[in-house]
Each structure stands twice: as structure tokens, then as C-alpha cells.
Amino acid sequence: MRKTYLLLLFALFSVEIFSHPHVFISTELKVCFNDQGMRGIEVKYVYAEMFTHELKQMYDVNKNEKFDENEVRVIKASAFSNLINYDYFVHVMFDNKKVKSTDVTDFKAYIEDGSAVYSFFLVNEIEFSSVPKVLKIAPYDHTYFIDVTLDEKKVEFEENTNIAYKFETFADKSQSYYYDQITPECVKLTVNRK
Amino acid sequence: MSVLLLIITLSSFSQNPLFSKKSVTQDTTKVAKTELIEKDSKSSFNIPIISKLIIKNARLQRELKSKFSRIAKDYKSSSSLKSILLILFLAFAYGVFHSLGPGHGKFFIFSYILTEKPKVLKAIGISYSIAAVHAMSGLLVAFVLMYIFKEYSTYSYSVSSSPELISKISFFFLILIGAFMLYRTLFSKDEDADMGDRKKIHLVPFVLSVGLVPCPGTIITVVFLASMGLTFLGILSVFFIILGMGLTISSLGLVSMFSKKLILRFSKSSNDSKKYAIVYKIFGVVGASMLLIFGLLMFLGSF
Fold first, then answer.
1. Would you tell me which of A123, B203, B269, B290 could form a disulfide with A103, CB atoms 3.0–4.6 Å apart?
2. CA dihedral over A56, A62, A66, A71, signed as positive or negative
3. A57 contacts B223 by C-beta, under 8 angstroms
4. Contacts of A107 (CB under 8 A, 6+ apart)
């Protein structure tokens, strides 16, 4: 009996040595400028096949192979809104300061070429000066349950004639996560107002 | 058992950031708010080669899963033996590479081998037990989830458990296991370093504590195949995932076992039994300390 309780105790508080990652997302970004600086980022998550299948199982209630308005509402409430606690997997730093945004707009969920897609606009209002400063945008899940990767070929810009920028991508060690062992690919922009 | 199953199911689902109901700290209907926060200076312990290996491994798993789903869809239309064999091989390969990544008790088996003196078959047995418990609990959860999906056509399942609290308690237990093993190694009354008569630690609680967390990879695989009407193939895949995981864990365990034996043989060959005993004790202390420190780092890192 004592052994049973011991087993149960260990089982109840079993070590969460779970192997990661389990879900895979490819991220597309569009950085949107305005006259003052940046107004936000259009984000698109493209899920891999297996998790697409799981999302369809859970949310495509009428099994029509697409997410209808009601289904999108449910997805937003139960399989997206919690990402506010994870910075929506988009980590923004400006002039070495973390930029925390709390609002997303235009959330959509749909199936495209067999993959489930989330798209939304992440509001990040940052004012630039005439002095060039570094803006970094890195998509990742710091828990590494989800492998969130940047699709470097799909980084776009909504340009503005008032804003000058230089663009490159690099592995940002300063944002290493998951016990410091994973380095995210990062969009690095050197930006200034003209 | 049903309470245990419920807790396992809740804890597995609460791990995914998309679903886990951490308390939502901000009202998202408020006007957009952008804060600039001074970043704490953070010293990084990043080891580039480990980082590259973890990322490469993740990409490989993604590829394997992608091939797996394509072949499963092919099988649904063609029902060919070749497709079945490919699916099972991919499941095996997925098990191998998935358990190379962080987790799956490799650290535990390494520490156990350093502190105890298991025979080869026992080390392999423990490795496969961890893999089996981990994958089978995933299979169990998959069936529970499929029952929920079947019975409730709309998904309104919400998890209120706090994964952070469970993690903290789990890491604390890892500290206790490491401390217990260190205590036994340091204060064992046996003079004989071979510890032939020392009471062996009961492995079942340790195997369960390391392996009981359901493997989300297994859950996703089984739910995916079952939803295509391939439940039996899903169950069979789990056994091949176990074979793959067990191969990785036991291989690493055997490497540490043979390395330890080699070093001990050198110290024994000097005919100095005291030196042998010291070396043996050092192995035990190092193994137990590593587990203790690992647990401490994970526990402190969880705050």
C-alpha cells in the first residue's frame, strides 16, 4: 500500500521532462511603417500538416474543410488568445529595449494549400528618430513546445517615404531561449526617420 | 486510476501555449498599448554546437512528420504494404530522433548508471521502460481526447490547471531524487565498492516519474491516424516509436556504462583497491550531483 502511494505521488508530480518540439510553425512577417516609425507587424503562422489535421478535427465542426466565421471565433478564443502570455511568439526589441504589445487586430484562421494558417496584425507603435537605431523582430516560442521558425523568404515591408531602413537576418544569441540552448533567427532592421 | 488519467490528460494538454490557460494578464479589448521595457542584462550560456544540433534535430522531426502524413494519406487511397512498412519505419525513425532532443530521461539514465552498477540488460530494460511508459501514456491520452472529440462535437474543453506550478513541483522532485542518490553514494556503509549487497533503489517510481508525462508527439500521431480511420496503424506506430526511443536512450546509457567500466578498469589495474573505491565513489557522486544540479537549475529557471 505504501508503495502504491509512493508511485501515485511520483506520478502526480512527475517530472515534465517532455521532449520538444511537438508542433511546427513557419512564420511570415510584414513590417508596417508609418510617418513616425513602425505601426505594427502583419504576422502569418503556417502550421505543419499534422497539427493542421488536429486543428481541423477540433474546430471544423461542419467538416467542410474550411473555418467558417463561428469556427474562427472559437479558434480565436480557445486556441489563440492565450498567446498574449507568450507575446504572440513575436519578440520585438528596439534600441535594446523589449517592446511589449498587447493588442492584435484582424485575426483570421483559414486553410491554404492544405495547411492551417493564422494571420493577424500585431500592433507595435514605435517612434523612430533621425538617428539610426536597431529594431529586431524574432519569432519563437520560449517554451519550445512549438518550433516557430522565420521564413526568411517571406519577410516583407509596407514602405513609407519618411522611413529609411536596412534589413538583414541573423541568429540572435542575446535572445537564446529554452535554457539558453536555442538561438532564434531574427529580422534586424536599422531604422531612422529621413 | 481515473483521477490519475485525468491529471495526465490535463497536464499534457496544458503544455501547448496555444491552449494552456495561463491567466490572461491583460484585457485584449483595450486600446493598443506598446511598452518599452528595459531588457535585463542576460548572460548567455549558449553553446553553439548544441544549439545547432537541437535545431537540426527539430527540422528533421518536422521532415519526418511531413513524410509520415503524406504516406498515411497515400495509404488511405492505395492500402499498400509498402506504405505500411514506410509508416512504421518513419515512426521508428521519429522515435530515435525525437528522443535525441531535450528530455526523455537520458539524463536520468546517465546519472543512474554513474551511481549504481546495473548490468547491460538491466540498463537496456530501464531505457525501454521509460520509452514505453512515455509513449503508452501518450496513447492513453490520445484515446481519451478522441473520446472527448467524438462525444462533444464542438471543442469547448478548457484547462484551468497551472502548468507552471506542476513544472516547479516536478523539478523539485527531481532535486529530491538527485539528493537521495547523492546521500546514498556518500554515506553508504558498504566498504566494498562493488556494492553487491547494497539494497537496490526501487526503479518503478523513478521510471514512472521520468516517463509518465505523455508524449505529445505520440498523441498527435495517434489522433492523426485514428481520425483517418487508421486506428490500428496508429497503435502499431506507437510500438515502433517506443522501439526508436528505447534504442536512443539505451545507446546513450550503454555508452556511459562502457565509458565508466573502461575508466574503472584502468584504476583497478593499478592493484590499488583504495584507488578503485575512490574512483567508483567519484562516479557515483558526479552522477547524483549532476541530477541534483540539473533539477536545481530547472527549478530555479522555472521562476
1. A123
2. negative
3. yes
4. A72, A76, A80, A118, A119, A120
Cα A61 to chain centroid distance, Å, stands at: 26
Distance CA B67, CA B87 (A): 9
Contacts of B67 in chain A (CB under 8 A): none
Q: Model confidence over A38-57: pLDDT tens digits?
A: 999 999 999 998 888 888 88
Report yes or no: A121 and A43 within 8 Å, Cβ to Cβ.
yes
pTM to 2 decimal places: 0.71
The answer to whether A122 contacts chain B (CB < 8 Å) is no
- Residues A128-159 as b/e (b if ≥16 CB within 10 A, e otherwise) read beeeebebbbbbbbbbbbbbbbbeeeebeeee
A77 in reach of chain B (CB within 8 A): no
Report pLDDT digits (tens) over A80-137. Answer: 999 998 999 999 999 989 998 868 999 999 999 989 999 999 999 999 999 999 999 9
| Cell matching residue B244 | 526508436
C-alpha cell belonging to residue B117? 552498477
> B18 with A85: CB under 8 angstroms?
no
Query: How far is B200 from chain A, CA to nearest CA, in Å?
Result: 15
- Cα angle A46, B220, A179 (rounded to 5 degrees) comes to 70
| Closest to B99 (Cα-Cα) out of B209, B218, B186 | B218
Write out the H or E segment, with its range, that includes residue B84: helix B81-98
Q: To which H or E segment does residue B271 belong? A: none
Decide if the complex's ipTM is over 0.85. Answer: no
Smallest Cβ–Cβ distance between B208 and the set A7, A16, A179 belongs to A7
Q: How far is A46 from chain B (nearest CA, A)?
A: 13
Is the bond leading into A21 cis (omega within 30 degrees of zero)?
yes
Closest listed residue to residue A140, CA positions, set A100, A186, A102: A186
